Structure prediction request, 403 residues.
Amino acid sequence: MERNKKRFETEVVHTGYDSSHYQGSLTPPLFQTSTFTFENAAQGEKRFAGQEEGYIYSRLGNPTVKVLEDRIMTLEHGEGALAFGSGMAAVSAVLFHLLKSGDHVVCSRGVYGCTFGLLEMMEKKFSITHEYADMSSEELLRQAITENTACIYVETPINPTMECIDLKMVCQVAMELEIPVVVDNTFSSPYLQNPIKLGADFVLHSATKYICGHGDVVGGLLVGKSAEEMQEIRMTTQKDIGGIMSPFDAWLLIRGIKTLAVRMDRHCDNAEKIASYLKAHSMVKAIHYPGDADHPSFRMAKDQMKRPGGILSFEINGTKEMAQAFMDELNMIKIAVSLGDAETLIQHPSTMTHSVVPPEVRAKMGITDSLLRLSVGLESWEDICEDLEQAFKKVEKRAVQMQ
Ligand code: PLP
Prediction:
């Protein structure tokens, strides 16, 4: 097969697009159209009957969106891919595809807050139960699986504590028991980790994050290892629920993804520096960064990921109020949820991304009120450190004055 012959850095730039089909246009054209005309009624009939290839209506497929789908499919080593209007549309499409009433989901101990919300909703409305399992050992994973388990859903590294899960182990157990595995690979991007290569059935991304890289798109991508199953999702959950990506967003993502490899290396380089700085700081109680030799997932991350990524979280030596005051004192670093952008972003998980998670569950997930998550951007790492340092100094001074 032609595919996968080139290196990642080349695939992100070229795969899925042949300029000779589009009058030599270097960049893929934007097919900003809702529908496609047929030459005659017979052609329309054939396309609807699946007897002739070609576009019908942009909810079922669009040439600009297809470039992005083909590219991510190759980067994630799958056989089919679909683009969605958000990461959550991709999460819900794959879960609706795999699950029915009475089924059970085994889920990693931490997941993105809205995935948590979706699982809660599925339990209440459709009696699809779930369990947050400690997947740190095969034994614990097996204990969580029931005869009704129809999906294992994993996020690794887990947001925001950056615990990593052994995907090979999870996929081996799942394969033996014939349970499909879905991996949310948003935090790693396909540059750092490829779950399908490790045995997963589906991998998904909030493309809003590293794949976009510029903070100007909300989008989702789903890749599957079976072309037939992905086509089924295209013609059922995606078509009928309708959470598709717009051609313009796909066009922006094609532009963003071209620089994924260089951006990821820079994010990783910067995160390494910031992690060392924070670890040595007197106002920091703990850091959670899988590239730190003291992090419980240090070994796992080394084995499973190309590099430990650009996200880290840290606990301030103090109260929730101090953590929030620290954020308010930052100048260059922006207070915002989302991640993977050029700008360094900071957020407070217990009152922001994970505020929907009940406090007792948050406590089990290791999300304290003094925990802050940093998405390390592409700026000079010295400037990032200087901004953190001036904010630490101000908060420290205020704490001393109050004593
Ligand atoms: N998965 C993870 C790990 C995320 O961080 C997010 C969003 O922050 C999502 C899924 C949902 O993606 P979106 O916001 O694009 O719907």
